[in-house]
Amino acid sequence: IQHKSLIAVSIIFHFLIFVLGVLGNGLVIWMTGFKMKKTVNTVWYLNLAVADFIFVAFLPFSATNLALDFHWPFGKFMCKLNSMIIILNMFASVYILVLISVDRCVSVVWPVWVQNNQNVRKASYVSLCVWVVALILSAPYFIFRDTEKVCDKILCFDNYALSDDYETPSAMTITRFLLGFVVPFTVIVSCYAVIIHRLRRNQTLTSQSSCPFKIIAAIIITFFLCWSPFNIMGLIEMANSMPEYSSEILDDIIIIGSPRATSLAFLNSCLNPLLYVFMGQDFKDKVRKSILNVLESAFKEEETRTHTYTKSVDTSQSRESSDLNTEV
């Protein structure tokens, strides 16, 4: 009974994250991709939202797997892809956060250089490179995922027997921990240490940068709070797979902690849009106005479209000018 109730709670949790994630990230993609004027910042946030949207779009597969008591009915390819998407989301998201942090740091330290050299096209190319790196790092989770029929069930699991190297699981876990957590976290903390140091010396910059700084700081803190347990549990599982470290205590920690750590990591994919709305007044106003424009256009098509276009151009030009002067 307890096992079934935990599965039921997990399915509901998956469903809520799916709904919030699709709606929230879909809205951010619509705003940053189609509604707002293209800037370097909108490129970063668009890619962050795309990473989360792709992830939540695959949650129904995991929820179905839970509902069927870990029977996987979607075939081997989807088993591999579903596993890879989780890690792809983690790497893509954390490296985009690194880009945002480095971008803000450089903007504070060398503002003139940024104005002269930074543009949307370069930001798009860098974002593409991030996706390529994230795909490469998540590829092993596609390669080593497999399906096997056991009794009446088809299980989706990690099959390292495909490799002659039995150290592969440990190498994957350590790589994920270092390149997906330790290194990005170190770079991000270093960037914000420089930013805080500069802002303390310049009170004008502090007042101008307060809101954008708070939003990105909240996003970064939320990301690491959500993904830290997942990465730590990976290390614990790795240690428990080694005879010299294996113990019943670690077994219990994994049984209790692993599902919760995974759920917390999943939760991160729907939180960013909420942070934008609750912490970013400009984004909140833009969302409200855009939704109103959509409703108005349904009733006054031509008149409202003309008004909306003019208003959008004026607002976008004003925003671009403001971004160049105030964003950190």
Automatic annotation (TrEMBL):
Domain of life: Eukaryota
Region (Disordered): 306-328
UniProt keyword annotations, A-Z: Chemotaxis, Disulfide bond, G-protein coupled receptor, Membrane, Receptor, Transducer, Transmembrane, Transmembrane helix
Annotated compartments: Membrane
GO cellular component: plasma membrane
Family classification: Belongs to the G-protein coupled receptor 1 family. Belongs to the chemokine-like receptor (CMKLR) family.
Protein name from the UniProt record: Formyl peptide receptor 1
Source organism of the structure: Oreochromis niloticus
UniProt lineage: Eukaryota, Metazoa, Chordata, Craniata, Vertebrata
